[in-house]
Amino acid sequence: MNTEAIVIRIKTPSGDMDSSVDCPSLLNFNDLLVAIRDVMPEATVTAFEYEDEVGDRITVRSDEELKAMLSYYCNTMNEQRMNGLLPDPLQIFPRAGKTPGIRNIHGLKVNTRPNPANDCSHAVPDSIANNSLKKSSAELKRILTNGQINAQDIHYQEQLGHGNGGTVYKAYHVHGKRVLAVKVIPLDITVELQKQIMSELEILYKCDSPYIITFFSAFFVENRISICTEFMDGGSLDVYKRIPEHVLGRIAVAVVKGLTYLWSLKILHRDVKPSNMLVNTRGRVKLCDFGVSTQLVNSIAKTYVGTNAYMAPERISGEQYGIHADVWSAGISFMELALGMFPYPQIQKNQGSLMPLQLLQCIVDEDPPVLPVSQFSEKFVHFITQCMRRNPKERPAPNNLMDHPFIIQYNDGNAEVVSMWVCRCLEERRAQLAQGRM
Ligand code: ATP
Ligand code: MG
Description:
Distance between the termini: 45 Å
InterPro entries: Dual_spec_MAPK_kinase, Kinase-like_dom_sf, PB1-like, PB1_dom, Prot_kinase_dom, Protein_kinase_ATP_BS, Ser/Thr_kinase_AS
Keywords: ATP-binding, Kinase, Magnesium, Metal-binding, Nucleotide-binding, Phosphoprotein, Serine/threonine-protein kinase, Transferase, Tyrosine-protein kinase
Strand content: 15-25%
Domain PB1: 7-97
Protein name: Dual specificity mitogen-activated protein kinase kinase 5
Bound molecules: adenosine-5'-triphosphate, magnesium ion
Pfam family, one: PB1
Number of helices: 14
C-alpha cells in the first residue's frame, strides 16, 4: 500500500474535520474510531462509511475493511495525481449506533501523532495517547493535522505575491509531504506581543469549512512570523480579468458561505477583497487573510498606513462597524470582478489596495455605483445594489444573503464551471508568458 501521508476528512454534523495521517499503513480501525469519537463526543459512533467511485456508501467496521478503503483511496489518489490534480481528501462519514455505549472501553490509543523522525515504527506511549483523548477537538485537530511545522522542514519555492506587510511563498513541507502557502511578515515586536498573536491565532485551528483556507501552523523566527496555509493553485481573483456572471455566481456563493461560516464563529473577516479570495483548479473558492488576531492586524498597521479601498463607507468614516461592512466589501469586490475594473473610476488602485483616506472620501459621499443593467442579469444587479447600500442596516444580513435569488440560482454545487474557467485562464496566462519569451 501507498505509505505517503494522506488526509482524512471526517464529515460531522457540525462541519468537516481534516486530519493528516502520516503513516496510513499503521492506522487501524480503532485508532480512527477513537479520533472520530473525540470530534463527535455527543454521538456513539460504531462504524463509518466512505463513498466508492459511483457514490455508493461502503461501511467500515474492522481492520480488514479499513485496509480495503485505504487501498481503494490510494489508487484514486494516484490516478488524480497522474491527471495533474491535487488529490481529494479521503472523506469518511461516521455512523452512530442506536444505544449509547461506554466510550473507549478498550482503552484504545490515538496513534496518529507524527513523530519527529517521521519514523512510523514507534508506537505512541499510552500516557500521551490517553491524554490526547481528553483534548479539545481544536487541539486534536492540531495534533492530527500537522504536529508542529518547523521552519527547517519548509522548502521555499517561488514567491507567489507580495502584499501590504507580507510576502507569500509557495513551499513544500517535508514531513507533511504537502505544498503550502507560507506568508512571511516581518514584525519588530516584543516577545509578549508575539505570544499574544500566537494565542489569538489559535482560533484558526477551529476554522473548518470548505470555503475557508485551511490553516496549518504559525511560528515566529526572529522578527518574522510565518503563517502556513493550504496552497491554492489558481491564486487570487485579483489577477483574473473580467469574470463572466455564471462563473462569478458560483464564486459569490462560496464567498457568502465562507463569510457566513466566519460570522457564525463571531469572526469578522475585515479584509474582504479579490486578493483574499483564492481559487484552485478543482473549482474550489476559499477566503483567506481574515483578521482573527487584533494584535497582528495592529502590528502590521503600524508599518503600513492607508485605508483599504474595499472598506465600507462607515469604516472609512471611522464609525463602528459589523457584519454589514464585510457585506459591502464582498459586493464591491464582485462588482469589480464583473466589470474588470474598480467601480469608482476616480480611485486608481495602482499598487495594492491601501490609499490615503482623502482619496476614498467619494465612497462616503457619493451614491454607490450600480452595475449596468444592459450587461448583467436583474438578479445580479439587485444583489450587488443590496450589498452596497450606503446605510449598513439596509444591506442583507447573513440569512438574507443566502436567500437572495442570485445566490439561490448559483447554489448548485457546480464546481466544474469554476474549475474549467480557472484552468482556461491559467492556460491562457501560460501561453502569453511563452509568447512573451519568444
Ligand atoms: P494585502 O496584504 O493588502 O492583504 P494581498 O492580499 O494582495 O494584499 P498577500 O495576502 O500578501 O497580499 O498575498 C499576496 C499574493 O499571494 C496574493 O495576491 C495571492 O495571489 C497569493 N497568495 C496568498 N495566499 C495564497 C495561497 N494560499 N495560495 C496561493 N496563492 C496565495
Ligand atoms: Mg491577502
